[in-house]
Design brief:
CATH topology of the largest domain: Alpha-Beta Plaits
Structural class: alpha+beta
Strand content: 25-35%
Number of domains: 2
Number of strands: 8
CATH class of the largest domain: Alpha Beta
Strand order of the largest sheet: 2-3-1-4
Largest sheet: 4 strands, antiparallel
Order of helices and strands: EHEEHEHEHEEHEH
Distance between the termini: 15 Å
Number of helices: 6
Helix content: 25-40%
Radius of gyration: 16 Å
């Protein structure tokens, strides 16, 4: 059995409120084992038979849409990869500053070189970015309100869906499920 985290987009934002217990039960009815949720932002940990991740993402998205009535983009990462995600970004020193927040945007696929170049051209004194495989690291120096970016703007520039988590959430999941 493979232990995996499903990072769900559009859970408990924009009027789409889902109780974590109900979300856990939905995953169990889809046939997953050892299901748990982590904070109320759409992080579901589960065990599965290790099938193709794209097929699992599709299964989860289909199951959630049938029950919730709207599409929930799903981004799967094995728990064994979570600690590595935190170690792969180039913002280690900068992320320690008090007025700085580091986010991870989970993507389905690595963006094309052209898309990466276009987003990296938008770096500024507040926002900086780094791509690594299917993750985009986004550091916000100073207040988030000073940022010129949002999850929606990132998706538009990427030309694909993404879901964003604070690096502290990723770290806590890595520690808890290591």
């Amino acid at each position: 059995m493979t232990q995996t985290v499903a990072f769900l987009r559009a859970i408990n934002v924009g009027g789409h409120n889902v109780k974590m217990e109900a979300l856990r039960q939905l995953f169990e009815t889809m046939g997953f084992a050892n299901v748990a949720t982590f904070i109320a932002s759409g992080n579901v940990i589960f065990s599965s038979d290790g099938r193709d991740p794209a097929a699992l993402e599709h299964q989860i998205e289909t199951g959630l849409q049938q029950v919730l009535g709207y599409r929930v983009a799903t981004f799967l990462r094995p728990t064994v990869e979570l600690a590595g995600i935190d170690q792969r970004h180039p913002f280690q020193a900068a992320a320690q500053a008090d007025d700085t927040t580091l986010y991870v945007a989970f993507l389905k696929n690595a963006p094309s070189h052209t898309v990466q170049t276009q987003l990296l051209a938008c770096r500024n004194a507040v926002d900086d970015f780094h791509f690594d495989q299917r993750e985009l690291f986004w550091i916000v120096r100073r207040s988030f309100h000073e940022s010129t970016f949002s999850g929606a703007r990132l998706e538009k520039m990427l030309g694909s869906e993404a879901t964003v988590r604070n690096i502290s959430t990723v770290r806590k999941l890595a520690t808890k499920y290591d």
